[in-house]
Amino acid sequence: MSGSGTGGVVGVDLGGTKAAVRVVGADGRSGDSVVRWESGASAGEDLALLVRAVERAGGGGGVRSVGVAVPATLDRSGVVVAWPGRPGWVGVDVLGALGAMFPGASVRHGDDGDLAALAEADAAGCGELLYVGVGTGVGGGIVSGGLPLNSGGSCEVGHVVVERGGGLCDCGRRGCVQAFASGPAILRGAVARGGRPGGLGDVRDGVARGERWAVEACEDAASALAALVIGVGELVRPELALIGGGVTTALPGLVPAVAERVAGLGRTGHPVPSVRPAVLGAESSLHGALVLARGGNRE
Asked: Could you confirm whether the keyword Transit peptide appears in this record (predicted)?
């Protein structure tokens, strides 16, 4: 997997339950691979799966640059200091591990939410945008003037508190958006109301049948996301709020429900952002990682 000044680029999107890899060769041809992490697996086991994913995607040689989207908190040297979704990764040198897979290639990282926002803004042709990705957690980013707005860190939109004393978030606080709107949070909310969903598909079917446990769990998620959009809108005035991630794919009614709530929270002289589904779907962070690998904006 050696690097080359004229070689291809690789995008890697590390998630709480899976990793996605896309290799784009110098000739423009691309290959994709996805691996799912085993629950409770060590970072070493995860990395071994990632190596195989890279090989399947065609990253066996001639790679000049790698961009990696990371949901974890990294220090300046690229070492994981916190990742509630994969606690076994704490202490892992992510940049070093990726560098070992691609000797000679440059490896750059960015927050997955920031990179997703950058990719979505580029696809939408909008320089003032809020992106929210809803999956195992809730992340996202803000683009202002065509650049990520993060003051040298990441925009932790999923940890904006929307209800004091609300549900416990895995960050240790109560009432974060993530505690209401992430995939696991929606499932917990459904179970707390007497449902027995095996996954988000069951929640979607429950909503279609009008089951209270499903409808109310989704309403909680939509209300939390709407509060986030309104709060950000009062601070930085994005034109668009795009909501994506795997949960929005599984629950297609979620984004319209958020849009309806946001529209109802406008005030005279202060227009609210237009809420739409993200156009890149669950691959926005992966697209952003490729933007980074090609030399786009970093953090």
From this structure: no
